[in-house]
Write a structure and sequence with these properties.
single chain, alpha/beta, globular
């Protein structure tokens, strides 16, 4: 009898495969990084063939000769990262353009000349921003020789990384509602591609994948017996990484929220079957759709740079040798020494949506040392999360009682305590902190009846640790005022 569900978690810096049992516990994991490619300032790319190779390697390692133990496969992925490949040969026409990439600023600015930054927000829930896939597809069609003709002939097809992996695993060209909702091309009400927007962006509809539910018992095909899984296994779960974490955290009731600390930071609030337009700089997005049930929507606050800032200290400055060392270095000082680090490396996402912003460290004096910089690096994640939470409460009218957290950075005790302090609410970490992969597994498992209902998943969720706020209200207000002031110093840097 099959005992496990496999999840492939294709992230911004690495790909991993994890196997989960019925209790939602990790029984096997394998992970490998891939290269980050920076052709010029503001451009970020990945090699899709390298990512597919890494995927095959981690699947083989995680399954390690027991394919018969796997019941189904779920996929979760870095969202918005955009790829176009040949449907016959599988060869990409260009590197994948990563969600952080800002090369489409001119396209977005041109589109905004008629209707402003919120030109498509009513249909898509999203502002015009370099973040989303639609403008990236347009850039590829306009700049890669022969690509437009290939797309119009039905040979060149588009997908985010979920579509790329599912296509390589099964041959199906699909994406789920959560990933489609991040393209700036899907209508939130119809859950289908918006013909008017496609016409404005001049994107052939034939190149787009079929939009399907996140958990689909009518599977999109099965893995090939001679593929990395070594058996024919249904692929039937697909969620963008942040929506996968929402499912993994079992935030199935309106008003429940989670925050994932990864390369960026992403807070999602379940709003049920209601589409809530944001007036505070948040995104209205799909939370998930299970089978033929109504789609569930969410408000999202997206922060571009959080964990990536720690990587920057390691890779660009050499202040630390490993990401884990940042906490030790930050603990060598009592506070940030009066500095703030605003990591607007790719502009600012929620709630500002300022592509003209660039990173800044403000408040520098001779007193400041590398310990203060490390501490300010961690505090930046917490301050940005506070800004998103404020916007979320303003839009929804829901006052958050506690914040469920997950992702790689939640192992950092200093950061989690400061997060509770600056929010003024408890911060709760579950036993399985890597909830992104767990959410993809849940989606696939629900599709085949491995888990019967979402309530079965709630029964798996357990608290590992809670951080209570300890900071005085006056100190919290003073620090946060300083942060808001620091953020304004990053505006209008790019003319």
């Amino acid at each position: 009898m099959s005992k496990y569900i496999a999840a492939i978690d294709q992230g911004t810096t690495s790909t991993r495969c994890m196997l989960f049992n019925r209790r939602g516990e990790v029984v096997s994991v394998a992970q490998k990084e891939h290269k980050q490619i920076y052709p010029q300032p503001g451009w970020v790319e990945h090699d899709p063939l390298e990512i597919w190779q890494r995927t095959q390697e981690v699947v083989t390692e995680a399954v390690s000769g027991q394919p018969s133990a796997v019941s189904a496969v779920g996929i979760t992925n870095q969202r918005e990262t955009t790829l176009v490949w040949n449907r016959h040969t599988g060869q990409p026409y260009y590197n994948a353009i990563v969600w952080q990439d800002t090369r489409t600023k001119e396209i977005c600015d041109q589109l905004a000349q008629d209707g402003g930054q919120d030109r498509f927000r009513a249909q898509t829930g999203l502002p015009l921003a370099t973040y989303f896939s639609g403008p990236k597809i347009k850039w590829l069609l306009d700049n890669v020789d022969g690509l437009r003709a290939a797309a119009e002939a039905g040979e060149a097809i588009f997908g985010n990384m979920d579509s790329w992996l599912i296509w390589n695993l099964t041959g199906a060209h699909v994406t789920d509602v959560t990933n489609a909702s991040r393209t700036l091309l899907m209508n939130l009400e119809t859950l289908d591609w918006d013909d008017e927007i496609l016409q404005i962006l001049d994107i052939p509809k034939a190149m787009l994948p079929k939009i399907v539910p996140s958990s689909d018992p009518e599977t999109w095909g099965a893995t090939a017996p001679d593929g990395p899984f070594g058996a024919s296994i249904p692929v039937c779960g697909d969620l963008g990484d942040q929506q996968a974490a929402l499912v993994g955290q079992t935030c199935f009731s309106p008003g429940e929220a989670k925050n994932t600390y990864g390369t960026g930071c992403f807070m999602l609030l379940n709003t049920g079957t209601e589409i809530i337009p944001s007036k505070s700089g948040l995104l209205t997005t799909l939370g998930y759709q299970f089978g033929d049930q109504p789609a569930v929507y969410a408000l999202e606050g997206s922060i571009a740079i959080t964990g990536a800032l720690v990587q920057w200290l390691r890779d660009n400055l050499g202040i630390i040798q490993s990401a884990a060392e940042v906490e030790t270095l930050a603990k060598s000082v009592d506070d940030s020494g009066g500095i703030y680090f605003v990591p607007a490396f790719s502009g600012l996402f929620a709630p500002y949506w300022r592509s003209d912003a660039r990173g800044a460290i403000v408040g520098m004096t001779r007193y400041v040392n590398k310990g203060h910089i490390a501490r300010a690096t961690l505090e930046a994640s917490a301050y940005q999360t506070r800004e998103v939470l404020d916007a979320m409460q303003q839009d929804s009218g829901v006052e958050l009682k506690a914040l469920k957290v997950d992702g790689g950075m939640v192992a950092n005790e200093l950061l989690m305590q400061f997060q509770a302090d600056i929010l003024g609410v408890p911060v709760v970490r579950p036993v399985v902190a890597e909830t992104t992969a767990l959410g993809a597994a849940y989606a696939a498992g629900l599709a085949i009846g491995f888990w019967k209902t979402p309530e079965d998943l709630r029964a798996n969720w357990q608290i590992a640790k809670t951080w209570q706020p300890k900071m005085a209200a006056g100190t919290r207000a003073e620090l946060y005022t300083g942060w808001k002031k620091a953020v304004t110093r990053t505006f209008n840097w790019v003319e």
